Amino acid sequence: MLNANMLRDDDGTLAVEEISATTYAEFLQRHEGVLHDEVTMLGFKAAIEANAELFRQATVLEVGCGSGCLSLWAAQQGAAKVIAVEPSAVCQVARQLVRHNRLEHVIEVIQGNVQQLQLPPVDIIVSKWMGACLMYTSTLEAVIYARDKWLKPGGRIFPQLANLYMAIAEQPEKQPSMSDYWTRYSGLDLHLAWRIVQQTPVIDCLDATQVITQRQLLRRFDLSTLSLHELSFTVPFRLLSLRQSLAKWFLLYFDFQFPKLKPITTNPNAPPTQWKQTLFHIDAHLPLCIRDSVKGQFQVKRATRHLDFDIDWSFQNKLVHIPMHKQIYRMQGKPNDI
After folding, report:
1. Mean pLDDT throughout 268-285?
2. What is the pLDDT of residues 256-268, one digit of tens each?
3. pTM for the full predicted model
4. Three-class SS of 146-169
5. Which of 18, 281, 319, 330 makes an SS bond possible with 4, Cβ 3.0 to 4.6 Å?
6. At what angle do helices 69-76 and 38-50 cross, to 10 degrees?
C-alpha cells in the first residue's frame, strides 16, 4: 500500500483510506489523459456553470465518474445531492478528491456498475459517455440504462446531443508507405500482418489540410430517446471531393452539445481532444479530382467487447473505375475499453 501520510489533514489525522499503487497506476493510465483534455473538461465545467439554475437543489447522477470532477462542479453549483458511480477501483481516488474539496456532505461516490445498483430518482445525468468515433465506450449503454431507470420525467442528460460525421483524408506526402514496411520487413513477407493492420481503425490526430472531401452527417444521437438497438445501424453516404488528391483514409469524427453553448468537436480543424479522429484505411488506389464523389454504405455492428464496421463503396472517374466492394474493420481493446 502507498504511504498515506501525504494525505493527512492539517491536524495530522488520516484524511482518507490508503489506496494501492495499482489503483493509482490505473487512475493515471486511464484518467490522466482525460484531465489533460481541457477542451472537453473545461467544456463540461462551462456547461454546468451556464446551466446552474438546473443544477441548483437538483439530484445529480454522474455515470462513469473517474476522477469525479463533473460531480465536484455540479456540487459547486448548488446540487442538493450528487451520486458519482464508477465501476473500477479508481472510485477510491474520486472519494479522496471529494473529501479534499470538502464536498463529502453532497457527493456520494459508489463503486459498481450502474446496471447492478439501486439508486433514487435523479434530475440530471452527467457523463463523459463519448468514446473513440463516438461509439467506442460501454458508458453509453450505462447512461441509457440509468435514463430509463432513474431519470425523472423532464430530466436532463449532459450532454444529450451528439453528431457523427464522415469524410475522406489524404496521407501526408512525406509519410512513408506502411504497406512497404509490413510487406518488406527485413526480407520477410508479412502480408498477413499488413491485412490485420488494414482492418484495424487508427485513432490519431489529422491535420485539417488532409481532409479532401465534404463531410457527411452519418448519425445524430439524442440520448433522451436513443435505444440500445439503435447503436447498430446502416446509412448510405456520398462524399464529394473538394480538390485533387490521393485518398488514403475514411475519417470519422463527432461533436456534442450542451444547452446554451457551442458544440465541442473532434473535427481536425479544432483543438485536439482525447478522442482525436478515427481513421479507416482505404485498400485501393483512389485518385480523386475536384467534385468527384465516393459513394457507398456505412454500417456499424455493436457487440459486447468490440465494434465491427463494414464500409461498402465504389468510385469512378476518368482515371480509375472501382466497382462496389466491401472493407471490414474491427475496433477492440481491453475488456473494459468498451
Report:
1. 95
2. 999 999 999 999 9
3. 0.88
4. HHHHHEEEEEEEECCEEEEEEEEE
5. 18
6. 20
